[in-house]
Each structure stands twice: as structure tokens, then as C-alpha cells.
What does this fold into?
Amino acid sequence: MGLACGQNAFILYKRLVNLRVSIVIISSPFKFGFSLYKFGTKCLLSVFILSMMTGGKTLAQQTSSPPPASIKKSVMVKRTPLTILIHGGAGELVRGRYSASIDAAYKAKLTEALELAYSVLEDGGSAMDAVEIAIVTMEDSPLFNAGRGAVFTRDGKNELDAAIMDGATLDAGAIAGVRKVKNPIRLARKVLEESDHVMFAREGAEEFAKDYDVETVKPKYFFTEARWRSYKEGLAAEKRARKAKKKAKLDFDFKYGTVGAVALDRNGNLAAGTSTGGTTLKRWGRVGDAPIIGAGTYADNRSCAVSTTGRGEFFMRLTVARDICAQVEYGGKSVKEAANDVMFNRLQRLGGDGGAIVLARDGSYTLSFSSAGMFRGVKQQNGETSVAIYKDEK
Ligand code: ASP
It folds into this structure.
């Protein structure tokens, strides 16, 4: 404000000095020239004082001559609140579904991921770094359907998808269907940084991991009792349904549990990332929305950063992440209005549900979900770390 005011005053002052010079040149041969000169000087003084008082944003906008470089730079660098948002999947999460100790374990892991990512931002790290560390923390936990806790495919294997996107450059990296990569989000970032491509799948992605020293593990690393039980229960439910000639209605937990993060760093840059084991009993080779840029993951400094969770087939058909950003960019909506339109209108009309975490460059954000609950958390500069699971939690 102060700078804009000073800038306007400076511009006006320059204009009026020019005007005064012209008046002097034109009028000096005449007698009334002197009084005109005096009048001009008085005008100059009053307009100068007036412009100092009003700050005159509109005046600054009217000028066609650019402000001095030093002023322009300081006007454009705006403070943005460091922010990290995460999700750990959405679904039929109603109270009583989990014991108090399981609830607490989820919340502790979400808090750990937020704290780690936030400390990266505080130390001057980029939004990309914060997104990566938040997701790695959740991938390493067997609680989430990503990395270590990935669900099983129809043939009893694990196939992992992930993507990351840099809102400052629109660079993106994605991988699909990997079976041996410990942290798929790290591989996605390597794709972004080291290749000319955006996405690798299966063996090609794994070969790329080897070439760039991204840690790989034996497939049994991804075996967890809980996921194996869900897999077996899913197969049994399908068998029963086949006998009754009905379509098996799988519990929502078979479908959801992906992790994601979006962040805003001290340079005002946004980033988004998502990582998943996909859906339980998916056919081998099935790829969901998480690694599809614009469907499950998107970031653009001109609008927002988004990571989604829910049955990928719906999110892909609606290009959910990009649609939210487009509504912000072209439609002038807030992130909340845009996300709610997609979650509660478009997605539900198509028969899907789920959630999205969305963050804009000014620090405004939303954690929107149309399912019963979503594992979620936020930490923003000068604010508390807050995590929640159920709809009735703040
Ligand atoms: N969106 C993921 C997928 O369809 C699943 C999830 O969000 O849990 O692969």
C-alpha cells in the first residue's frame, strides 16, 4: 500500500514536472505566462499531496510507464502462508468403524506426516519437497493403501501408482503398476526431474528406478495381514454373489485408502502428489486416477493444487483435479466452491464419491469429501496442526 502510494506520487510528480516545463516554454514570451506558471506549481503541490493521501491503486494501474524495477519487485513479492494438506483416503468411515486405538494410530501417522512436511517448508524447502516427504511417511506405514500397505490385485499381487506435479513449472512425473518400488512417489519425482517424459508404466518404470537408484524391495515387502484378509474376504464375497447371481457389493474399504498431499512454500509455489495401491481385486494392469495428471493429481500456480481419493474410474472420466483448477482459473471460484461443485454435483451425478484436498496460492484451502469420512490433516503457518477422520470432526 505504502509502496503503491509512493509509486503513484512519483509518477504524478514526473508527469506534472513535464507539464510545467511545457507551460513555461509555451508561455514565457507572454505576460500571463508567469501567473500560469504559479498556478501550475500550486496544482502540482495539491495533486502531489492528494495522491500521497489516497494511495491511489487505480492511478498506478492507469499509468502506462512501468514502475522502477526495484519498486516492481517488492510490490510483487507477497507473503504466502506456508501450508501442507494431506489425505489418507476417503470412504465409508463412520464412527465406531475402528477402535479408539486404531483411530489414534491413524491420527498419529497423519500428524507425523504433517509435522515432517511442515518443518521442510519452514526450513525453506520447496512445496515439492514437502509433498514428497508427507507422502513417503504415509507410504512407509502399513495403515494406508500406498507403498507398504498397498491392497492386493485379483491375482494376489500389489501394483502401485503415483504422481507428482510442480505448480510453478507444470512439470509432472507419474508411474503406474510398479511392483518392487518402495516409495512410488520418489520414483514419480525422478521421472519428473530426470526424464523427458511424464509417465512410465510397469517394467519400464522399474527399469527407470534401477537406472536412477530409486530403492526397490522384494514384492513380499508389501504383504500385510490386514490387506490380505480384505483380499480374501473380497474373493469370498464375489463367490457368494456369483452363486446368488448378483453383483458383489464390495465394502468401501476395498476401494479407498490412497494418500495425497498438496503444499505451498515460501516462494508462493504450489505442488501436489498422490500415491496408491489402487483398488482391491483390480485386474492386473488396471491403472486408476492417482497417476493420471488432471484426474487424481494437478498443480498450477495460476489456480490451485489438488490430490483426490475415491474410485478412480469416476475421477478419470471427470478429470476431477483439473476441473477443480479450471473452475478456479476460468470461473473465478474459490477453491471451496470449485471442489464442492465437483464432489457434490458432478461426481455424485455420475455415481461416484470420494474426496479432494485443494490449496490455492493465497493459502485458502478446502478438504472436501462426499463420502462418510476422509483421513485428513492440515498445518498452516500460525495455525494448529489438525487431523480428522469423520464428517462431524472439524
Ligand atoms: N483413487 C484410487 C484408485 O482408484 C483409489 C483410492 O483413492 O483409494 O486407484
Q: What stands out?
A: Residues 77-390 form a domain with the Glutamine Phosphoribosylpyrophosphate, subunit 1, domain 1 fold (CATH 3.60.20.30). Residues 89, 145, 256-258, 276, 278-279, 288-290, 296, 309-312 surround aspartic acid (CB under 6 Å). The two ends are 35 Å apart (CA to CA).
